[in-house]
Amino acid sequence: MRIRIVVADQGEARFYDALHADSQLRLVGQITDPLAHMHDRDFKSDRPGRVFDHAPSADARRGTVAHHATGGENSPRKHEAELFARRIADELEKARREDRFDRLVLMAGPAFLGQIRAVIPKSLSAMVIVEIGKDLVHQDERAISAHLPPDLFVKPV
Question: Relative to the CA of 132, which of 10, 14, 94, 116 has its CA 20 to 30 Å away?
């Protein structure tokens, strides 16, 4: 049984393989997103555009016009995290098609775990056996292994 373990945050994802309970995790891939560490102000735009009504309303003073935003505020960092979650899903789907693993474990902070869950295809969702809502991407293999359930390598009945 081959298990792929993904440990990710909004800017980095590491992919490990584990073959059995006694084996150490083996790093098989890593991707990063350099834009994840930027501030919102560093992106091209962080607020929606503004529009002005062309004519005043009937009860308003002459010469006054209303103005409002064209849409809700969208965080560029949140959008970038969604794009990165899709990159992770694409990498996993490619490895699944190449038959590199049988089961899947996802580890990420709760918010980013939700973003990954939202973008992975059903073919991958069916392979997920454990989701761990912890940000462990900067931890070593021993710390990651300590958060894995002890019955991870037991075949389901």
Answer: 94
Residue in 117, 94, 135 with CA at minimum distance from that of residue 11: 135
Structure tokens at 100: 């590199």
Burial class (CB in 10 A: 0-12, 13-18, 19+), 18: buried
Task: Spell out a b/e string for 77-97, using b for 16 or more CB atoms within 10 Å of the CB, else e.
Answer: beebbeebbeebbebbeebbe
Domains of the chain, first to last: 1-34+76-157 (3.30.420.60)
Instruction: Write the CB contacts of 78 (distance below 8 Å, at least 6 apart in sequence).
Output: none
Given a cut of 60, whether residue 87 has pLDDT beyond it is yes
Question: What are the two backbone dihedrals, phi and then psi, of residue 119, each rounded to the nearest 5 degrees?
Answer: -110, -10
